[in-house]
Design brief:
Number of domains of chain A: 1
Number of strands of chain A: 4
CATH class of chain A: Mainly Alpha
Strand content of chain A: under 5%
Radius of gyration of chain A: 28 Å
Number of helices of chain B: 16
Radius of gyration of chain B: 22 Å
Distance between the termini of chain B: 39 Å
CATH architecture of the largest domain in chain B: 3-Layer(aba) Sandwich
Strand order of the largest sheet of chain B: 1-8-2-7-6-3-5-4
Number of strands of chain B: 17
Oligomer: heterodimer
Helix content of chain B: 25-40%
Number of helices of chain A: 21
Structural class of chain B: alpha/beta
CATH topology of the largest domain in chain B: Rossmann fold
Strand content of chain B: 15-25%
Distance between the termini of chain A: 30 Å
């Protein structure tokens, strides 16, 4: 953008004036042509020297790059071998699993009765027929994922497509009975995710990661419930939809309280607007957002302290997991002030809206928002029973950008669009450009949040990079026929601008992942949509700008 | 260049605004009634539809070649490098204007074109694409395409777009021919030159700029050029110094007679393209006004606005430099990062300030009129008229045209934008009334006493105009 070349200098630069020069300088003929030419000649010589040096350095650099490329290529080949082996193993596994799934299907599993709603929320709950801003999203059956998701969580297994259409039905039944709570949920889901979360929470860069990926899932075949409480992508997604619903009720409940609680009424709106304003003020640059961070922190603390009185509610309505009191946690009580949760909700909403409204147009502006999000949800003071309440934010992500939770759909059908989070406004789908805009902002927003490095922080990362990996895997492993433009757009925007952080966190595994996402994934897409082309272009840009050749 | 700046601050040609381009130029190519939009398949899926009117010149009409409109960039047969550049910018498919205009502009042999199109419709991308497809990249230092724009900001902005779309074109050099950028003793060594007419004219006269191999000439915002004394004439002089075979593409937001006469003269035998319903451009922008109890209270009310909705970047238009500085102080105290830009800044410092805002290092831009036209910062989601735009001696008259240009800084490319105009006394109220009546705008009134209510109202307004935004012609469908 800047002007391509500075205006040429009028005077020559003298590197170090020696004695004679100095007197020349004072003499009368200092402006003589000869003098001038001499100076010019000097400048030219200096220029040549600098240029030669630069050329030498760049040659050296190119040489090193070439070496590195060769090394990487070798790694790629090795990785490919391993993957091939893994694929065979996996195909067999999948067949077995499918078999088991069918067997399980044959037996009918008694459904759990729906959970009774919490008492204080009951009366407020009634007038909410519309589930979310996106209009009537068909919830349980249609929103449920294709069977492919079972294997999506496995990073980069070349997906032996379980193409049998009836499997679809199976999957939906499975998730219906297991809304994130029943640990007896049929195995394939929990199995595969645990496999993912395992190798990639240990952030060791290097090919070792690759090796362990292949090893871990291979051993974890049994339907045993993993001890880690990380739950399968899609089943978790449904719990998020529930949380999202609960949050709507919470909002109504707060509104109800303001009718009898003047102190709350006068303060609540201001607090909400302060949070929103602070999010809008965020800019890049170190330390630029201190004021905003402190302000939001102050507001949340104010709500927690009970300075502004509000009824207490059970936070477990807004978490994916069941939590027991933990020693050393700041808040262990079964209930927290509803205003605090309400403000967390407002914060989450603000973050999402900032992604949508601002970052679609200006993806770079996502980073400070992601930083604040990760920071606020990592603070121990705002944890409940020792863990983050980030599920509140993720519930919103689940609704507005289901693709990051592994959901798929066709843009050509009503249900498909709903499943992809294509928004409806006034009964009509928003335009494609608006949808793409939203997805771009949300994709880059997700990356800005999920790729934070907490290695030097005393707090734990509320949404660690392994989640990012899982999301990428779930998109990249989509069966070719089901690839949607929306997925491509989200994938592209969650990669671009964040390649450096991703590579920093995952080392060469990240390079392999990038090749999957930017070369192989678009390569297998049946339609050459703009999103597909966009991914391929990113690969070319890396080659040109970073010397990173993914092909 | 100071003179350029001051000329921009006072858009004068009131006559230019009179006819919002409804007068047709006769022929409507019947084949062009819009059939696009339904290609998405899947019945019942709504898509945006608005008409772009095309009238063809004699030669083009004679040809049997059924002139198609392109639904994808791929269909246009663009060079791969250019396609990649468009994809890198996340362009999904051609906007309506691009669909119609690109096949015409890219046709061989090259033909002149006159197009009605406002910034924010994908116009810049359209002509940049054309330029890049016509350039011989083996001659990077030989000027081959020239773009003329009415202000240095716009010229630099276009330069940026050329560089972005052309990022995959190996040997592309783009130079801005704006005041202070090209030294007197050097030559213009670039294949694409974007500039302001005066500077370009000087460069050619001083033989710093070799025009012998120019293939494309683009005039952007022709109506604006004619508004500013001398610019239109300078363009004509520039044109007379160029090879007669050059392809001329002329863009203008409005086509009143004076512009049309100029345009047809300037670009003979041209194909014509216009948007059928012009005033739709401001749909999708939620237009509100804030009824302030007094002038002094405007400051604090302004700060409260930022809590009502999620704002990306915003622009505040004010009347005087003094109030610009005052507002800047107040807002910075409130935690905003603010850039103030007005006539006190010149040349490259103006560029630097604008870049600060464009790159998001500051998110509030406070400015006098300098920026009312043409500048595109896509993340701007709110425009505030801190003072109602006025014109004429003693600023006695409302200035609807400036109002329109100001609010057009938001809601770009079909995005949702908000504009809020402050009024506090009878004069400002009446001026705004006049503007609203002129454009038949339904302005929503906001009051600063109960922010809970105001917030609810604002959210409702945004929602409803977002629903309308689908009919915004600038929306890429």
């Amino acid at each position: 953008m800047a002007d391509s070349s500075p205006a040429p200098r009028r005077s020559a630069q003298w590197s170090s004036p020696d004695q004679t020069r100095f007197s020349d300088f004072l003499s009368d003929d200092r402006n003589s042509e000869l003098n001038h030419k001499e100076a010019l000649a000097k400048a030219r010589a200096e220029h040549d020297r600098v240029r030669d040096e630069a050329v030498r350095v760049i040659r050296l650099h190119e040489h090193q790059l070439e070496l590195q490329r060769l090394r990487e290529q070798e790694l790629h080949v090795l990785a490919a071998q391993r993957k091939e082996e893994e694929r065979l193993l996996r195909e067999k596994k999948l067949r077995d699993e499918e078999q088991r799934l069918r067997d399980l299907e044959a037996q009918s599993i008694p459904k759990l009765p729906p959970k009774p709603p919490r008492p204080p929320l009951q009366e407020a709950a009634a007038p909410q027929p519309i589930v979310n801003g996106a209009g009537p999203v068909p919830k349980p059956a249609t929103a449920v994922e294709h069977p492919g998701i079972a294997s999506t969580a496995v990073p980069f297994a070349p997906l032996p497509t379980p193409s049998a259409p009836q499997v679809n039905g199976h999957a939906s039944k499975v998730t219906e009975t297991a809304p994130g709570l029943t640990p007896t949920a049929p195995s394939p889901f929990s199995k595969s995710t645990s496999a993912v979360s395992n190798p990639f929470t240990q952030l060791t860069p290097g090919p070792a990661v690759n090796g362990s990926t292949t090893a871990a899932p291979a051993q974890e075949v049994k339907p045993a419930i993993p001890s880690a409480p990380i739950q399968p992508l899609v089943a978790q997604g449904d719990r998020y939809a529930e949380i999202h619903k609960n949050l709507k009720q919470l909002r109504a409940y707060l509104l109800e309280q303001t009718k009898s609680n003047m102190a709350l009424k006068t303060r609540m709106g201001d607090m909400r607007r302060e949070i929103r304003k602070s999010l809008g003020q965020l800019t890049g640059g170190k330390g630029a957002n201190k004021q905003q961070l402190e302000r939001i922190k102050g507001l949340l603390s104010e709500a927690l302290s009970g300075q502004v009185p509000s009824a207490l509610v059970d936070p477990s309505d807004y978490t994916v997991d069941k939590r027991e009191p933990v020693e050393g946690a700041v808040h262990n009580a079964p209930q927290l002030p509803s205003l605090f949760l309400y403000l967390l909700n407002a914060l989450a909403k603000g973050i999402i809206n900032q992604f949508i409204n601002e970052c679609g147009a200006a993806p770079r502006n996502a980073d400070p928002v992601g930083v604040i999000a990760a920071q606020m949800f990592s603070m121990k003071d705002f944890h409940w029973r020792g863990k983050s309440l980030i599920d509140i934010l993720m519930a919103k992500f689940r609704i507005v950008c289901p693709v990051v939770f592994g959901y798929r759909g066709s843009e050509k059908t009503e249900q498909g669009r709903a499943r992809l989070g294509w928004k409806k406004e006034g009964g009509a789908w928003i335009t494609e450009q608006q949808h793409i805009d939203r997805m771009t902002g949300l994709g880059v927003g997700y990356a800005s949040l999920a790729l934070r490095d907490f290695s030097r922080s005393p707090n734990t990362n509320p949404w660690p990079p392994s989640r990012y990996w899982t999301t990428m895997a779930s998109i990249v492993n989509t069966p070719p026929a089901e690839i949607s433009n929306t997925q491509c757009v989200v994938l592209k925007s969650m990669i671009q601008l964040y390649e450096e952080k991703f590579i920093h966190l995952y080392g060469s595994a990240a390079i392999v992942a990038l090749r999957r996402a930017l070369v192989e994934f678009p390569g297998k897409a049946p339609n050459n949509t703009p999103g597909v082309g966009g991914l391929q272009v990113v690969a070319q840009m890396y080659k040109r700008d970073l010397g990173l050749d993914l092909n | 260049m100071a003179d350029l700046a001051s000329r921009i601050t006072k858009p004068e040609g009131a006559e230019a605004e009179t006819a919002p381009a409804q007068e047709t130029t006769g022929t409507v190519e019947d084949a062009q009634t819009d059939g696009a939009g339904q290609i998405l398949g899947g019945s019942g899926l709504q898509d945006v539809n608005y008409d772009v009117e095309v009238s063809l010149n004699e030669i083009q009409r004679d040809q049997q070649n059924p002139l198609g409109s392109a639904h994808t960039f791929q269909e246009l047969g663009l060079p791969n490098e250019v396609l990649n550049g468009l994809m890198a910018m996340s362009f999904q498919k051609p906007s309506k204007v691009q669909e119609k205009a690109l096949p015409l502009m890219l046709a061989d042999p090259p033909m002149n074109m006159i197009a009605q199109s406002q910034s924010g419709t994908g116009k810049t991308a359209a002509f940049v694409t054309t330029i890049l497809s016509r350039i011989d990249f083996t001659k990077p230092e030989q000027p081959q395409a020239l773009v003329l724009a009415p202000s240095r900001e716009l010229a630099r902005q276009i330069q940026g777009v050329v560089q972005t779309i052309g990022q995959f074109c190996g040997n592309l050099v783009v130079e801005a021919a704006i005041p202070g950028n090209i030294a007197r003793d050097s030559r213009v060594k670039a294949s694409v030159v974007t500039g302001t007419p005066g500077t370009v004219m000087d460069l050619i006269r001083r033989r710093q700029f070799d025009v012998s191999q120019l293939k494309v000439l683009v005039i952007d915002e022709a109506d604006n050029m004619l508004d500013l004394q001398g610019l239109g004439e300078q363009c004509a002089r520039v044109k007379n110094m160029l090879p007669p075979t050059i392809q001329i593409l002329l863009f203008s937001a409005t086509f009143p007679d004076v512009v049309l006469r100029y345009a047809t003269n300037f670009a003979p035998q041209a194909n014509q393209i216009k948007l059928k319903v012009q005033e739709l451009t401001v749909r999708g922008i939620s237009q509100m006004f804030m009824d302030c109890p007094s002038e002094v209270e405007k400051y604090s009310i302004l700060c409260s606005l930022y809590g009502l909705m999620n704002i990306g970047s915003s622009i505040i238009f004010v009347k005087t430099r003094e109030s610009a500085s005052e507002i800047q102080k107040r807002m910075e105290a409130d935690g905003h990062k603010v850039t103030a830009l007005h006539g006190a800044f010149e040349g490259s410092s103006r560029d630097a300030l604008l870049d600060e805002f464009r790159q998001g290092r500051s998110k509030v831009l406070i400015t006098t009129n300098v920026l009312a036209r043409g500048i595109d910062v896509s993340s701007v989601s709110m425009v505030i008229n801190y003072d109602v735009p006025m014109k004429g001696p003693g600023e006695r008259e409302a200035d609807p045209e400036t109002y329109l240009h100001r609010i057009g800084r938001t809601g770009r490319f079909g995005r949702v934008g908000v504009s809020i105009t402050f009024i506090y006394d009878k004069k400002s109220y009446e001026a705004l009334q006049y503007i609203a009546a002129k454009y038949d705008i339904d302005l929503i009134r906001l009051v600063p006493d109960d922010w809970d209510n105001t917030e609810k109202k604002v959210q409702r307004v945004i929602k409803s105009s977002r629903a309308q935004a689908g009919f915004n012609p600038s929306a890429r469908t």
